Each structure stands twice: as C-alpha cells, then as structure tokens.
TrEMBL record:
This is NADH-FMN oxidoreductase RutF, flavin reductase (DIM6/NTAB) family. Pfam families: Abhydrolase_1 (PF00561), Flavin_Reduct (PF01613). Transmembrane segments: none annotated. The keyword Oxidoreductase applies.
C-alpha cells in the first residue's frame, strides 16, 4: 500500500491510497459526501485479490485531501478535481463512484470519456433532485459532524457550500453523453432511487447495465461484499485483465485493434486525374522514409476508389490535418459527396491539390510504388513542404480521434 498525491482544480492537494501491482488494470474509487476512502476498504481488498490496481481517492475536504482554506466546494471545482486526477494517472481506469462521487464522476466523464476512463460504475447515485430526501441526508450529516465537533474526517463547510439542486440540473443530460461501458448499482430498498428511475437511467446510457442488491438501501456501507461481486463480474466482462491476442489466421479485427494502439496523425492524400479532376482520400498510414533524398510514403488500400489514379499519378500531395479539420477527415473517408466542393483547397506549385489550413502539406513526385498485400506503398520524393507552427495535430488512436494533452 502507498499514499499518492495529485493536484486538483486550482492546485488543491488530493490524496489517494493505492494497492495492487502497477501492471494490473486500474480501478479508481470515489466516495460520497461525509465519507473518506476508508469506506471502500473491503471492496478495494476484493478488487486487489481479483488482480486490479486500486486507487482510493479522498475528495477535497475529506480524509487526507486538502480542506481548502476558502471553503470552495462547488460542484464545478469537484468535477475538475476528478478530471485532473484522471489526466495524471497515465492509464484509463474504470471509475467506481458512490452518491456524491457518482454525480462528480458522471459530470467529469460527460466530455472526453474515452480519453479519461475505460468504464464507469455508479453506486447508490441519486438520479433526480428530491429536496425532502436531500434535507434528510443533510440533517444526518450535520448531526454526525455535531457529535464530534472539530474531529470529523470531512469538512462540514461542504454542506453549506454545495448546491445539490444546481448539480442535479447540470447532470440532466449527462447519461446520453457517457460513451463508456457503465454499470448502475442500487440497493433494492434505496430511498434515493426508485426501480423505475434506475431502469430509465440505464436505458438512456449508450452502453448501460443495471444491478440491484437485495434487502439493502445503501450498497457501499451495507453490502460491500455483494458490491465486490458485482464489480468483479462487470470488470471481467467489460474490462478483462487478459490482453486480447491475435495469431496469424485468426480474427482480423483483433489484428486491426492491435495496430490501432499505435497513435498516428491523420492525412489526406490528393492528386489530379488526367482530366484535371482533383481526387483524395483519408489515410493515417504515413511516415517519413529518408532525409537525403527527401522521401515519404503513404499506404493506400487497393479497394479505395481513388487507388487506380494515385497508383499512376506522377505527382501527389500529403496534407497533414490539424485539430480543426476533423470534418475534412470524415469527408475524405466517406463516399457520396463532392469532397473538394466543401473543402478549401488550391492548386499547389507542382500541380497537386493542397488543402488550405492544414498543419502541413507535402507536394511530391512519385518515387516508387510497392505492392503490400491489400494495400500499396506509394513513396514520394518531396518537392515542397509547408507547415503551420501554431496549430495542433488531429490524432487518431484506437479507432477514435484524439487531441494532444499537455501535462
């Protein structure tokens, strides 16, 4: 076991307890209001024994994390805390969060979910704001804090600073945007969520499942053993420890997924047909070959509509796309529209179509063409290159567009 510190929103220090091997898939546990990471102790131990690296986080104002001097406990700050922690992990964990932590996790993963996490488990998370229930919970938390004034392991100022109603309103559209495998767990006797509301919530998720723990109201505190079982089952099915494996002659999709682990930029390769019509297609198999002479290559699918023209073209251009050109990438990867009519371009100095606004463009003369299975390798001698140093690249990784993250 080790204690790790992270920097949250506005530099707030956040503390977490970590158990398990660094080589095992990660699970990040996020507790609720008035709790600490200790509430997950039994669950964390079960997950470690099941081969997971477990990171139990204390929210700001709870446990070993910093209690901000300014008493800032607004929902937005807590959401940004979690996004900051996820960005610092260096891996994409399955996030397991209860009550308030579930609200925070849902909002944090409403944007860029696939960049930050590999799955989400929500436990006992309220789905609609009920003022009466919120008041009862608040009263219980105030009573607990009053029994040991100055000795609580969470900051009672949270109760006055946090706006539950505003947080619930912000979360109204979150489910449809959480593009991750998601498990929602509720206690069968929960006063926080009705069975109908839980079913409707899960139905609105892109990839959701529902689990109910019998004869309990709060699963984390009342039935941690049952929760551990549900979690391990979900993790083994949706985020398995074993790495997918490809062997020659087996599923080509697995081979493609393995290749997709190599992050690349995105290019549009263009040329002119003999009749002067511009052609082009999206390609991410692009690399430099030589500085002297200046050579590069792109891999073109034999089945592409533009392939016969690119194979024979005496000159072509490779346009490296920037982050704002995702629509251009989609346009040149699809069919059935005039790609150049909707794309700003000029005829370059050497007669090739150059897409204006690209991160960089290389005008090339054909140097060599090599067969490569269901693709051919088009090697070009660079005649001219231009680039824009103030833009960021459009990236592609595991079948999705990405953007640079600056630590």
């Amino acid at each position: 076991m080790s204690i790790v510190e992270y920097r949250g929103f506005a530099g707030v220090r956040l503390e977490a307890e970590v158990i398990g091997s660094a080589d095992d898939p990660a699970v990040l546990l996020v507790h609720g209001a008035g709790q600490t990471r200790g509430v997950w102790a039994g669950v964390a131990e079960a997950l470690e024994q099941a081969g997971r690296r477990v990171i139990s986080l204390d929210l700001r104002g709870h446990g070993g994390s910093e209690w901000p001097a300014d008493g800032r406990y607004d929902f937005g700050a807590m959401v940004e805390d979690l996004r900051a922690v996820l960005a610092q992990l260096g891996t994409r964990p399955v996030v397991v969060a209860s009550t308030l932590g579930g609200w925070i996790a849902s909002a944090a993963l409403e944007r860029d979910a696939a960049l930050l996490a590999s799955g989400l488990v929500l436990v006992d998370v309220p789905l609609d704001f009920d003022r009466e229930v919120a008041q009862r919970i608040g009263a219980r938390l105030r009573e607990a804090a009053a029994l040991a004034p100055g000795q609580a392991d969470w900051d009672p100022r949270l109760l006055d600073a946090f706006d539950s109603e505003a947080a619930a309103e912000r979360l109204a559209g979150a489910p449809a945007a959480i593009a991750l495998p998601t498990l929602y767990v509720r206690g069968a006797l929960s006063e926080l969520v009705s069975p109908a509301d839980a079913a409707a919530f899960v139905a609105g998720l892109p990839d959701g499942e529902l689990a109910e723990v019998e004869d309990r109201s709060l699963v984390v505190t009342d039935r941690g053993d049952a929760l551990g079982g549900w979690l391990i089952d979900f993790l083994e099915r949706r985020a398995p420890r074993a790495s997918p494996e490809y062997r020659e002659g087996s599923d080509a999709r697995t081979f493609r997924d393995a290749l997709g682990c190599f992050a690349t930029g995105v290019t549009v390769v263009t040329a002119m047909c003999p009749d002067g019509t511009p052609i082009g297609l999206t390609a991410n198999s692009f690399t430099s070959v030589s500085l002297d002479p200046p050579l590069l290559l792109v891999c073109i699918a034999n089945s592409a509509g533009s392939a016969p023209y690119l194979r024979e073209a005496g000159r072509f251009a490779v346009n490296v796309l920037q982050i704002g050109q995702q629509p251009t990438s989609n346009r040149f990867a699809g069919k059935g529209e005039d790609r150049f009519a909707a794309t700003p371009w000029i005829k370059g100095e050497f007669g090739t179509p150059v897409l204006t606004g690209s991160l960089s463009s290389f005008e090339c003369a054909r140097h060599a063409v090599h067969d490569g299975g269901d693709h051919f390798l088009l090697v070009g001698r660079v005649l001219k290159a231009i680039f824009e140093p103030r833009r960021d690249p459009l990236l592609y990784f595991r079948g999705k567009y990405r953007k640079l993250h600056f630590a």
